[in-house]
Amino acid sequence: MAPWLTVVGMGEDGLASLNAEALSALDAADLLVGSKRLLAKAPGFGAERREWPSPFDPLIDELIKHHSGHVVVLASGDPLNYGVGRKILQRIPVAEVRVIPNVSALSLAAARMGWSLPDCDTLTVHGRSPASVEPFIQPGAHMILLTDGDESVREVAQRLVRRGYGESPMTALEALGGPDERRIDFSAARVPDAPFGDLLTLAAACRASADAQVLARVPGLPDEAFEHDGQITKREVRAATLAALAPGPGQLLWDVGAGSGSIAIEWMRSARGARAIAFERHRERIGTIARNADRLGAPRLEIVAGLVPEILAGRPAPDAVFLGGAVADEAVFDVAWAALKPGGRLVANAVTLEGEAALIARHARHSGELVRIAVEELADIGGHRAMRPRMAVLQWRVMK
After folding, report:
1. Rounded Cα–Cα distance for residues 251 and 80 (Å)
2. How far apart are CA 345 and CA 360, in angstroms?
3. Domain membership flag for residue 159
């Protein structure tokens, strides 16, 4: 089927930003869809006009009804760079859609800053929690963020200050590419009192102080980075566990018996778009998991309270499963194993004899690897120093 829907990226300078192909699509359109701001930048065309609603999704059903006509959707900049193009292509086959991109705000920001775009971390906090910047706050990192404007700029700055990056230079770039473009330079610790505009892209060069909290994106954050009541997979075992779970972009983890949420949170920090569901029966730990997720950059972590295996039923099939609680419970294992996708990974850690016996029996049935992880740490003993062993962990790793 030939394309009936054209998604046109438009710059802040309106029609002057469009090439001949985009202008021809506008001339041929019988339905023109966009925000009030973008529609005002495209006067003089005879198509029916419709502003898109918020949320945008219901409008896609209306677009599909016009598949026999010529529909044009106006989008800001590059429609497939944090734009509406992604949502449209989730519902409408690519063969029916033509995308005509423009210069994105991220590219314009990199040009204004003189930064190489592939060397920057680019993300959006527009309509999303600013907590998502946390994994990208690293010494020497350059971030370019699409924002909601004033409030999100201030929260990103506050997060930099809280982590010890208060001297990080920041630049707010308003209305990039248009006649009202404006640049405001400041540091995270000294944000101007005057409000910022809505059409704003934020650039930040992370500059760590001597006492900055440096939290690497590789698994194995310090235990003290998490709020917990003692129910936490310790740092060294956690690093080995995440390596065995092998986080991948967009993949889903079930963290069963999540405790502090450390495994699920580090899974989400490790790969762009990685998702996780934390299952926890102790309700007092639910708030702990949520606070850890916000502070450590996993705001999209789904937290489910209740008893397993009942709360596992009906959940999206995972790419990986971690059994940190109820390890010896065969009903929990059976439900999790049945739900796991073919090729998925399951990792279970046991410290009790009952848990070890269950893992040994499952290994006999399903194969995989059994590994004992023993860690020793420094301790003071009668004025002397010695290495004191922690409880050893038996880890079972298996691919379905």
Report:
1. 21
2. 17
3. yes
Query: Residue 321: left (phi > 0), alpha (psi -120 to 50), or beta?
Result: beta
The predicted-structure confidence for 6-29, as pLDDT tens digits, reads as follows: 999 999 999 999 999 999 999 999
Segment (H or E) for 253: strand 252-256
3-class SS of residue 115: coil
**What are the helix (H) ranges across the chain?**
20-28, 36-40, 57-65, 85-91, 105-113, 150-162, 235-245, 262-270, 283-296, 330-339, 353-366
Looking at the fold, whether 151 and 189 belong to one and the same domain comes out as yes
Closest CA to 322 of 311, 313, 331, 332: 332
Instruction: Report yes or no on 211 lying in a domain.
Output: no
Global pTM value: 0.92
The domain total for the chain is 3
- Whether residues 231 and 305 share a domain: the answer is yes
Give the model confidence (pLDDT) of 144-201 as tens digits. Answer: 999 998 999 999 999 999 999 999 999 999 999 999 999 999 999 999 999 998 889 9
Crossing angle, helix 235-245 and helix 262-270, to 10 degrees? 50
